[in-house]
Amino acid sequence: MPIKLNERNVAAIKPASGVTASGQPKRDEVHTDSELRGFALRVSRTGKKTFFVQKDNKLGKTRRVAIGPWPAISAEEARGRAKVLLAGMHTEGVDEIASANSRRRRASADDEQSDLIRDLLESYKAKHLQSYGEHSRNMTYSGLCRVFADHGDLRLKDFTTADLTNATDFWRDKGQMVTANRRTEQVRTFVNWCEQRGVAVPHLRYHRTKEKSRDRVLEVSEMVRVLAANDTLDHLDYPDCIRLLVLTGLRRTEVSELHWSEVDLENRVLNIPAARMKNGLAARVPLSGAAVELLEHRRKFVPSGYVFARWSNGKRAFSGFSRLKVDLDAAIATQEGGALEHWVHHDLRRTVATLMVEKLDADPTVVDMHILHHVSTTSGVARTYNRAKRLEKVRTILDDWGRYVTSLTAENVVSVDFGEGRART
């Protein structure tokens, strides 16, 4: 049934649903305008909405001419273009106007917005990636540049599935399946962003490689060796960054991008905004005595800006984990026992959670929700109440953990007293 294609009605139209006469799912649905004959809107199953005009030619065949996607083109603007196109169809003929419109759209794209991949990447970085954290923004942009390294002068619509596969094979060949999948998803997000802005995009098949979840947990003896070797490194930021990772159980970028505006030493807590947390929820992270001591020491050298940024006087967040881990592994290899079995920084987070439960008898649920900050299925109100109620319990666990970590690098320590008669070796 025809409807008036205005902004309100177009926004309210739901994605195509139902099945065809043959029982197959409908690919799209067409909604015609109740006032302007020949003006219509196509809605796909994914919710994409595209304005177009249609008219029968002299042979009785219906020809359609695309106007553009909504909301990149408003309903009012689309209606104005439709009137011009339909009027042209009466004077020039359907086939001629379709060809002319195609030429006009190509010329418009060349004049208004380049569809070259290198230009689109710059626009994507400036308009979309600015909402990301600094580390995530840089990693995403550099990853996309690596994927499109040999295709910067290519129009996006000419980029093929084979091009994408060949580019991401760089990581698959190195056994980095997770990275290959992340780069593929980043390309998907980039292409969708471009399509929403009216750029002609390719129809890519996004191949996802099967991932194997890591389950590496360092033994206590391995953790001792990591901390001992870490203390020997001569670097302005990396050793303290590693120690705070261990003391808090936070993710790598949640520590490396820590800003002094997020640190409340008086109340012994970190206030990390939602934009920097993987789960999208702001976090209050209690600080143990050991963590407070570390941060107070760093404040003498970097009083403002980013906490781990002595190298840039607080102006830029710390980076270079992979490069500096090579130095850490080399320091570990010089110890008695030689090199450790392969481990990555994120294994420290898993190890922290495991040892808290095993060595401190910490409640696994509290560790998972309030230290690892995994999102639960609890309702929003209950989750907020539980966070407030358990903050002191989390502080107690982290205080105990801080004393345990300190004990690991102390000489001749056999046991540690955690209060209430508890001791762990």
Describe this structure in words.
This protein is α+β, with helices and mostly antiparallel strands. The protein contains 15 helices and 9 strands. It has helices spanning 7-12, 75-92, 94-112, 117-127, 134-147, 161-172, 177-196, 220-230, 238-248, 252-256, 289-299, 321-333, 345-360, 364-371, 380-408, and strands at 28-32, 39-44, 49-56, 62-70, 263-264, 269-272, 283-286, 416-417, 423-424. A 4-stranded antiparallel beta sheet has the order 1-2-3-4. A 3-stranded antiparallel beta sheet has the order 5-6-7. A two-stranded antiparallel ribbon has the order 8-9. Residues 91-96, 103-111, 377-385 and 412-425 have low confidence and may be disordered.
Q: What are its keywords?
A:
425 residues; alpha+beta; 4-stranded antiparallel β-sheet; 3-stranded antiparallel β-sheet; 15 helices; elongated
